[in-house]
Structure formats: C-alpha cells, structure tokens
Specification:
about 300 residues; mainly alpha; 13 helices; about 0% strand
C-alpha cells in the first residue's frame, strides 16, 4: 500500500472508506439476524465470531502478540463500547439503514458536548452553533410531534455518544498497540460483557444464522481493523467527513436487500447534520493549527 499510495493521508482516507463500506455490510447482517433472534444474543454471537476471526492474526507469534501496556484503557473503552452497541443492536432492526447512518453522523456533536461538559474544554460560539444546527438536523430526521417517535431512532441516539467515546479511547491506544491487538481486546471484552445477556436470551441458531454470525464476525473485525489502522495515520476530525459516505452505502443496501429506504426527510436531516459536523471538524482543525503546541511542533 505504501508504494501505491505514498502519502499517509491517502492511505488513511482509503482505509476509512473501506471501513465505512464494511461496517454497512455488518449492519445488513446484524439487521437480518435481529429480525430473527434477540438483539443481545446477536451481539454476543457477533463478538464470539469476532474473536475466532482475529485470534489467529494476533496469536501467530504466540501469546506475546496479546501483550499490551493499556489493558486498563481497553477495559475502560469496553464500558462505552458495550453500552453503545447494546443500544445499537436493539435499534438497527427497527429503522432503515439510511436513518441509522444519518443519526450516526451526530458523533462529533456529542464529542463537542462531552468536551465542554466533562473535560472543561472551552467551546466557542461557532462550535455551539454547529451543535445546535446538528440537533436541528436530528429533529428533521425524527420529527417529534409530527410523527410517532421511532423507538429505533431513540436507541440510535443513545448509542452514538457512547460509540463516539469508544472511538476516542481507541484513538489513544492506536498510537501504542497494533490494530490486531486493539480489535482482539475489544472483541474479548465485548464477548465477556455480552455473555450474561446472550445466555439469558439464548436460542439455538440455525445453520444459516450461524453463517450470518460468521459473516458478522468477519465484517466487524475487518471494519474495526481498517478504521483503527486509519486512526494511526490521521486525526479523527480529518476522517469524519468520510463517514458521511456511509449513507450512500446504507441507501443502496436498503433498496437491494430490504426493498425499502428512508423518506426524504431523513436525507434532508442528514444533509443538515453533515453540514454541522463538517463545520465543527473545520473549527477544531483551525483551533488545533493555531494552538501554541501546534506552532511549536511545526517549528514556527
């Protein structure tokens, strides 16, 4: 890849695009499974197959491949990751994939809120304006008071900030652990955390469902491997606009696999959310480049 794409930016963008497509394939598989099995059982099965897929890559050189200096961070990440995907797997069966993609774009909005509320970060009015515009887009998508509130949409909105927090922790450990290690520990913690729920809702899967679980493990592992690799190359804020391509894949899969799609309001709301989150990413990029630390690193 280094020969074909010599710049870090090009490699990071390509990996992020591949991850986005693969994650939509994962969503299709999960949506089919959650129509047939309890969502928490599906979540547990996905992490079981995820471990089976990633383990050979981590253990090819023995147990040394599991060594990490950030086990506490991997465990801390699991809190956000497990909670986020408990909501996500419960909601994905209830709404079109395009609506899921539109609501997932709110990640940077919740990151900005979290930075202000919990980290004491000073957020200027321009970014607050982006947050407000983003939530306007969310209101356009779910239209409370005009149509019945979709439980699936509310579950997705609960999932997004938790998954955004998980990605921020993943960015921290991506600088020290390999993508294989990060995905392995994420899968192992996911398997352990979902085990009680998976056992509680246990139903014996059919052979076809086992095949779908294996596909979910392959798609999930590959998607997180590629996105973690891209985190090693570029900042999350630089990669965020590429996530918006996900609504294209989601719309195509809605039509091809499920024979339906979201309504026009969803795409209008998605456009508003995209504009807001792009503005937030732009402001963060400018603030970072203007900071004294940035100036010191660049030698100015």
């Amino acid at each position: 890849m280094n020969r074909t794409l010599p710049t870090r930016a090009a490699r990071g963008f390509l990996l992020a695009l591949l991850a986005g497509l693969i994650f939509q394939c994962l969503n299709v598989t999960i949506k089919i499974l959650t129509h047939e099995l309890p969502p928490m059982l599906v979540a547990w099965g996905r992490w079981i197959t995820g471990i089976l897929v990633i383990a050979p890559f981590v253990l090819h050189s023995g147990l040394a491949g599991l060594r990490t200096r950030d086990l506490n961070l991997h465990g801390f990440r699991a809190i956000f990751h497990t909670g986020g995907y408990a909501f996500w797997y419960s909601g994905v069966a209830l709404i079109p994939l395009a609506t899921t993609a539109a609501l997932s774009f709110t990640g940077p909005i919740f990151v900005t809120l979290g930075a202000a509320l919990f980290l004491g970060e000073k957020v200027r009015w321009q970014r607050w304006a982006g947050v407000l515009i983003g939530f306007l887009g969310v209101l356009v998508v779910i239209r409370p008071g005009l149509v019945a509130l979709e439980p699936g949409a509310l579950l997705m909105l609960a999932a997004v900030p938790l998954i955004a927090a998980s990605n921020l922790v993943a960015k921290v450990v991506a600088g020290r652990d390999t993508p294989e290690q990060i995905v392995f520990w994420q899968s192992l913690f996911g398997l352990v955390c979902f085990a009680p729920l998976g056992i509680w809702f246990w139903q014996a899967p059919t052979a076809a469902q086992c095949g779908l679980f294996l596909l979910a493990g392959i798609f999930g592992t590959a998607g997180y491997f590629f996105i973690t690799w891209s985190f090693r190359l570029l900042d999350i804020s630089a990669l965020q606009p590429l996530a918006f391509v996900g609504i294209v894949w989601a719309t195509l899969f809605d039509l091809l696999v499920f024979g339906n799609t979201a309504d026009a309001w969803t795409f209008l709301g998605a456009g508003i959310i995209v504009a807001a989150t792009t503005w937030i990413a732009h402001r963060e990029s400018r603030a970072r480049s203007a900071s004294p630390e940035s100036a010191t690193r660049s030698g100015t």
